[in-house]
Amino acid sequence: MNEWTxxxxxxxxxxxxxxxxxxxxxPLSQPDAFTAPVTLPTQLVSAAxxxxxxxxxxxxxxxxxxxxxxxxxLGSALPSLNNSERVQVLVQVDRSxxxxxxxx
Length: 104
Hints:
about 100 residues, mainly alpha
């Protein structure tokens, strides 16, 4: 019985000091595929310009739009695009919109 009271009476070792935080990770050397500046093919540049105009019109009318509505509205100005190309077009539209915003 004495043995147990001695074990309980002996304080546990203090926990080790927390380890230093790991060094900050370095940014990836490769830019993000969606945000990296890319040169768009000519058909996507013209498609981005057409989409931007249609989105501005929708904004003026305070309406939302969909990709199928854009295809219907723009007709041949918007070629058939796969999802990756749609993303590239929208990123380009967003970049050109940001370039036109006044600097603060």
